[in-house]
Amino acid sequence: MAEHIKFRDFQPSDAKAITFGEPGELLNRVGDPGTIIRVATWQGRIVGYVTSWLAVVHRSRRFIDVVVAPDSRGRRVGTRLVEEIRARSHRPLATKAVEGSDAEAFIRSLGGRAYATCPPLELARRQFGRVREMLGGHDDVISAATLSPGEPEHLWSRYYEWVHADWSPVDDTEEARAAVRAEAAELDLEHTSVALVDGQPAAVAFVFDDDGAPTVCAETVARDTPDGDEALARAVADVVSASWRRGVRRLAFDGHQEDPHFGPLAARLPLEGARLFLLELPLDVVVPGADR
Which InterPro entries does UniProt cross-reference here (predicted)? Predict the structure, then answer.
């Protein structure tokens, strides 16, 4: 089968012919700048597809999503779809995969490696009391709603840019910076907690009132914030305490093991769930078997 597989660009009419994955999502991406969609066919039937795109904010890597028909797996269809994108890109390829999943095994088999790791990130209500005892008091913490207009959004932009700077920098364009600011517009300011050091914001537990569970992004406002670990613990303790009082069933954190203050804090907390790897195929990695 492998030697008879053909590749071509996705056509909108293909969505009705694809019987696996979520082909409807492909239609939403058609025409997006920087998006590439290739399909693999065998005897006229689509047996796999790959979608690749450039994010607005992080553009140092090209993201990919590979889907292969269940009855065509094990025939290097996915490998060759990845190479279809590699041949059209001068950036490393990247994707996300849950630890232990088939997706992780596939990308690692091609030479992929993790460039960031999200630890277990769900905090169940039954653990709220334990976390409050572990982190102690939360004096000198204020609600972001009490800050001057625009300051919470400024703190979000500062945090977001520095925390990604070393491994997935924000693109140096106004469009990328505007997208980061737009995320700040979704913040739940009343329940976002700001820890102060000498009267100035030092760490923030940003809260987004997402469906299912509030999402918390917590870090210091700058890499070299004095007493950053202690300030971050106070901000998180305040969010957990407020969540307990308002009946929140669980909190979903969003962060990385590599974050200099949140990473060590997350390792101490009784968080649940699977680890998530951000994987990349560097440009210097030769995809095994891609020419077959």
Answer: Acyl_CoA_acyltransferase, GNAT_dom
